[in-house]
């Protein structure tokens, strides 16, 4: 236990230079924005998690002082402060069976037809809670409860880049082809992570998005760069 | 510009600097040298910046051809086979000491002795285009290095113009670095979920011996030991940000110490974290090596880090920027 820990804002150190401030899930992003915007030299990285905000201090900064400063900023934030509103991004996704290997198992688990699964999926509004796992991989909140599906017991050796998947209550999109255990129900032709762009990630924590169904021909055309997505 | 040509790549040789800072919230790991201390010593010996890009070599080093007179250093693992050859003669390379190279020479690093990783620094540093502020290679994210991958035969490495002259070698440096890389135990501090583990599990962590498994990589060092009971949980944890050195306990009770290419978030409980000053020693571990842990407090860990940096700066000060 840390002597600086207050009742309102529990703190856990992850290492001698990084601490986590425990927050209600809906407060993580406003607090992330407030601290990241300051660009303090004694802070190396600020990262939102599901229920914590992680702050990594620069190697020779006074870590306790950084903690006090961060707690001050968070306590002075209005409790109801919302994340800076963003435009809703429209993300094309193709549900062609070849791109959706797990659509049937999600439908079976939900005891719904695949058509009903897809309708429920595209009708929902999503928000990027955090990016993690690999560069540009968004964890999205907003999946309707009837579509919640556990991940595969064992990860598949390869999930194609752009795959849109479900794990429990979360939706994720794979920026790179990697091993992965999420239930894949479709794919987007968009590039999620491109170091030649600033910022390199298509998504930022706090972004709002919706999925726009596209057919296979549109997917192939967008993926090949023959057409561009508005 | 000088160019170093890769004759043999070695087992897994990749360009690294001190890493990519500030992109963790986009899912980008820090990457960089697993043993940043050896990288910094190697760079300072040559009058390079601490962050100059060099080669991180794993178990079996590369063979390289030089087209100009140059200077190199080898730090991290000892490399008894390391040598520079010309048609006329062969000369061994002393560990942790600046070594001049003539145009046309071929450098062979050979097998690493006893430790997993060695650093081959070149005066001037490897001059590839940085990505997101760093030249560090992260293969699974396709970032940095040469198209995000380790070296291959026939690669050409551009070398920047050396900036300053060589450093005179301080007498205690080699013995000091050797000691820093071989502590008898890795020291750990409490981390995110330490309080959720049982007292027995926490005690077990510092009383048991663990063996490094073959499947270890820069993503994580996998350990084999008596199973540590994970904290009682109804279901898996939601994803939270991770740090290098974090000791995750997976469902089967085995430990993984997260490395520089770690996933930036994870859902396994974190029992402890290896202190920053012992990450270089962690990077030296090879498969089948034995590991022990010892608990220290956060304050002790900070003091150890400050002491390590002060000792380094006293033995080998940072290269001064040219005036």
Provide a descriptive summary of the structure in words.
The complex is a heterodimer of chains A (230) and B (323). Chain A is elongated and about 55 Å long. The model of chain A is unreliable at 1-6 (pLDDT under 50). Chain A has helices at 25-36, 63-76, 103-110, 114-123, 216-223; strands spanning 11-13, 18-22, 43-48, 52-57, 88-94, 126-131, 138-141, 156-159, 163-167, 170-173, 178-180, 183-187, 208-214. With 230 residues, chain A is an alpha+beta fold. In chain A, the strands form 3 sheets. A 7-stranded mixed beta sheet of chain A has the order 5-13-6-7-10-9-12. A 4-stranded antiparallel beta sheet of chain A has the order 1-2-4-3, covered by helices on one side. By secondary structure, chain B is α+β, with helices and mostly antiparallel strands. Chain B has helices at 36-45, 173-181, 199-207, 279-284, 298-315; strands spanning 2-8, 12-16, 54-58, 63-66, 70-78, 83-85, 90-92, 99-101, 106-108, 113-122, 156-159, 186-190, 210-212, 220-224, 240-241, 246-249, 255-258, 265-266, 270-274, 290-291, 293-295. In chain B, the strands form 4 sheets. An 8-stranded mixed beta sheet of chain B has the order 20-13-14-17-16-19-12-21. In chain B, strand 6 and strand 7 (90-92) form a beta hairpin. The longest helix of chain B is centred in the last third of the chain and has 18 residues, at 298-315. Chain B starts with a strand and ends in an 8-residue tail after the last helix. Chain A binds chain B through residues 12-18, 20, 32, 36, 44-52, 54, 56, 59-60, 63, 130-137, 139, 175-176, 178, 193, 195, 199-201, 204-205, and chain B through 21-28, 131-132, 140-143, 189-192, 195, 238-243, 245-246, 263-266, 270, 273, 275-276, 298, 301-302, 305-306, 309.
